[in-house]
Amino acid sequence: METPTDKQTLLAALAQGRAEWEAVLARVDLAHMHVPGVDGEWSICEVLAHVTAYEEYAAAHSRDMLEHGQIAAAHVAALDAYHTAELARYRGAHPELPGDINQLPSEQLNALFVYEHAGRAPAEALALGRSAYDALYSAVSQLGEDSLAQPHTLFNGRSLVQILPFQSYRHYQKHAQAIEGWLDAQHA
Fold it and tell me: Which of 74, 86, 137, 161 is the most exposed place for a label (fewest CB within 10 A)?
C-alpha cells in the first residue's frame, strides 16, 4: 500500500486496510477471541481493544480538525476524560501509575486500553472497532486537503495525512501478522 500524500490516496488506503483487517478477523472463530497468546500475551479481543483505542483517538483528532479547526480539541478532551476516569479505577490495582493519562508510558497506556475492554463480548469488541474506523473514515472524507496536510506540533510537525496510517491500517498490518501466525499454528 503506497504512503498517502493526499486525501483520496488516504481514503483508499483506509478502506483497503480495513477490508484486509476485517478479512483477517473473519478467519477467527468468535469462541477463540479471548484465547491469550495471540500477539504476545494478548488475545484477539485485547488486540482489538488496543487498536480501537488508537483509532478512536485518530478519529477524535480528525473530527476536532473538522469541527474546531484544530487537533486536540473537544473530541480528544472527551476521550481523555473517559480514559482518565478509567485510569482512576485501574490505579486501584496499580497505584504506582501516574494519575494523568498523558504521563503514562505507551506500555502502561496500552495496558489501560486492554483493561477498559476486559470482558467485552467478541461481537461487541468487533463492533467498537468498526465504529472507530467509521468515525475516522467519515471525518477524513469531510476534511479538506489543507486540513489534512497541515503540520501539527503535537505530532512533531507531521500532518494528519502522515500520522493517520499508523493509527489505522498500518497498525492493523502490524497486529494482523501476529493473528495470522497464530491462526496458522492453530490449523497446523
Answer: 74
How many Å apart are CA 81 and CA 75, to the nearest integer? 10
SS3 assignment, position 42: strand
* pTM as predicted: 0.95
Q: Please state whether 158 falls in left (phi above 0), alpha (psi between -120 and 50) or beta.
A: beta
- Greatest C-alpha distance within the chain: 52
Burial of 110 (0-12, 13-18, 19+ CB in 10 A): middle
Q: Convert the pLDDT of each residue in 7-33 to its tens digit.
A: 999 999 999 999 999 999 999 999 999
Alpha carbon distances (Å) from 19 to 86, 110, 125, 126, 185: 31, 24, 17, 13, 23
Buried b (16+ CB within 10 A) or exposed e, 73-89: bebbeebbeebeebbee
Picking from 161, 122, 108, 120, the residue whose alpha carbon sits closest to that of residue 26 is 122
Phi, psi angle pair for 17, to nearest 5°: -60, -40
For the stretch 39-91, pLDDT in tens is 999 999 999 999 999 999 999 999 999 999 999 899 999 999 999 999 999 99
Query: 165 in helix, strand or coil?
Result: helix
* Burial (0-12, 13-18, 19+ Cβ within 10 Å), 150: middle
